[in-house]
Amino acid sequence: MIYFDHNATTPIDDRVFDAMLPFLKTFYGNPSSLYRHGRACRSAIDAAREQLAALIGVQPGQIIFTSGGTEANNLALATLAPQAGLAVSATEHPSVIEPALHLQSMGHPLTLLDVDANGRIPQDAIDEVISLKPSLVSIMLANNETGAIQNIEHYADQLKAHGIKVHTDAVQALGKIPVDFNRLGAHLMSLSSHKIYGPKGCGALVFEKSVAIKPILLGGGQEQGFRAGTENVAAIVGFGKAAELAKLELAERQAHLLKLRTLLEHGLRAMPGLTVFAEQAERLPNTVQVGIHGIDGEMLLMQLDQKGIAVSSGSACASGIREASPVLVAMGIDPAQAKSAIRISLGKANTEAEVIEFIKQVNSLTR
Ligand SMILES: Cc1ncc(COP(=O)(O)O)c(C=O)c1O
């Protein structure tokens, strides 16, 4: 199989798997137990927290492990949104949009921030939101469909100067571009393990020390009392290992992905009627979303599947819903053109030969 859907999920790295295995078999203790068997698990969680902290430049105590990016986003919004309401960009992942809509239904005013044709938030949208003074603004660092990267540092500077708290969903950016929490200047940041060659079902919310976290899961005192529930030790260990590897290999991965993406875009651009979405935006080195005039993206996805090639026709979570991608619609793309979209998201193990084969297959299927 040629796997070009790394923004949906990544295969687990063998080194991550090896690090996890002892915590699925030998070290099955509860990290809250005081005897040696439990303490070994607690130490492993502490080590993973340090590995992740090193990748994003924070203190380990600023990390709350969660069940994934979705829970981290829900926790962020529940923590910061309330009284004065919230604003989220129109191209956010459903795990931000849906809790935002839920908060709106509970009486908290919600503003959707417009994006331009390249998926970036224009300055006038930031100016407008500043005048509304919500409690929280949530803007993703990189979009899961187009790969468009937002200038969080620039927005956070302005929003913070007006006392507005900032959350960024950095799930897609982590491991693909440098992610330095302090440099971004956000108060909260969401991460996910399975997008960086770690296991599924594990993520983290990173918080700035001044933020008073409001837990959404109540129970035991795990994760400083901010996220109750016995820790998923093996997954956390895997996330930590994946973070360690991402830090070590980031530059190499970035260069490899960019080389492949350049080759891919070059080949695709030779096709008639092809549009690269968010073309003018700075984008993740692994992501290309294209529309091909007169082609149904979902149909092309199925035909490529027959050839053993896995791509997405939009965000993975939206797959199956026969509607134009809300991200592309928010960028002002005509819904018919948006339905022609396919997303190719490359990974560290992909090769030039796979890219060349993909271009050949797309050409023959769309002729
Ligand atoms: C931008 C973004 N945020 C959040 C999530 C949700 O992360 P998880 O699958 O870990 O819940 C995803 C997953 O696709 C994503 O792409």
UniProtKB/TrEMBL annotation:
Instruction: Provide the reaction this enzyme catalyses.
Output: (sulfur carrier)-H + L-cysteine = (sulfur carrier)-SH + L-alanine
Species, as recorded: Candidatus Methylobacter titanis
Superkingdom, taxonomy of origin? Bacteria
Name used for this protein in its record? Cysteine desulfurase family protein
Family the entry assigns: Belongs to the class-V pyridoxal-phosphate-dependent aminotransferase family. NifS/IscS subfamily.
Q: Which cofactor does it need?
A: pyridoxal 5'-phosphate
Give GO MF terms, alphabetically: cysteine desulfurase activity; iron-sulfur cluster binding; metal ion binding
InterPro entries per the record? Aminotrans_V_dom (IPR000192), Cysteine_dSase (IPR016454), PyrdxlP-dep_Trfase (IPR015424), PyrdxlP-dep_Trfase_major (IPR015421), PyrdxlP-dep_Trfase_small (IPR015422)
Q: Which Gene3D superfamilies match?
A: 1.10.260.50, Aspartate Aminotransferase, domain 1, Type I PLP-dependent aspartate aminotransferase-like (Major domain)
Q: Which residues form the Aminotransferase class V domain?
A: 2-356
Q: Which UniProt keywords apply?
A: Iron, Iron-sulfur, Metal-binding, Pyridoxal phosphate, Transferase
PANTHER family per the UniProt record, alphabetical: CYSTEINE DESULFURASE (PTHR11601:SF34), CYSTEINE DESULFURYLASE FAMILY MEMBER (PTHR11601)
